[in-house]
Amino acid sequence: MTLEDDLTTAAATGNTAAVEQLLRSGAEVNGVNQFGRTALQVMMMGSLPVAQLLLKYGADPNVKDRSTGATPLHDAARTGFTDTVRLLVHFHADPNARDNKNCRPIDVAGGNIEVINFLDTV
């Protein structure tokens, strides 16, 4: 197992302390795990502290999933985490990024009015 595998596991479980310790130990913030995904792609979308830490360390907010073309902003919009959506946009996530089905994050936000209203203004 690599540091990047450990980093993605910590991010996916929302373990901010472990994420920080792994980044300080040399884990590459944009490195991929054994499944080809970065920590930002697999992080628990509702864990704002993990997202803030990864982005502070230079995580690419526009990284696309190899199979779906979705970005972390698509995932945060789809799951309705407005604070994570705002944070990703603040760190230059592209609100007009298109996935493999030609959908933007606003298109996959479902009925989440707060996410839709925010994305409609950027």
Automatic annotation (TrEMBL):
Signal peptide: none
GO cellular component: cytoplasm; nucleus
Domain of life: Eukaryota
SMART domains linked to this entry: ANK
Keywords: ANK repeat, Repeat
ANK repeat residue numbers: 68-100
GO molecular function, one term: protein kinase binding
GO biological process: negative regulation of cell population proliferation; regulation of G1/S transition of mitotic cell cycle
InterPro entries: Ank_Repeat/CDKN_Inhibitor, Ankyrin_rpt, Ankyrin_rpt-contain_sf
Entry-linked PANTHER family: ANK_REP_REGION DOMAIN-CONTAINING PROTEIN, CYCLIN-DEPENDENT KINASE 4 INHIBITOR B
Name of protein: Cyclin-dependent kinase inhibitor 2A/B (p15, inhibits CDK4)
Organism for this UniProt entry: Neogobius melanostomus (round goby)
Lineage: Eukaryota, Metazoa, Chordata, Craniata, Vertebrata
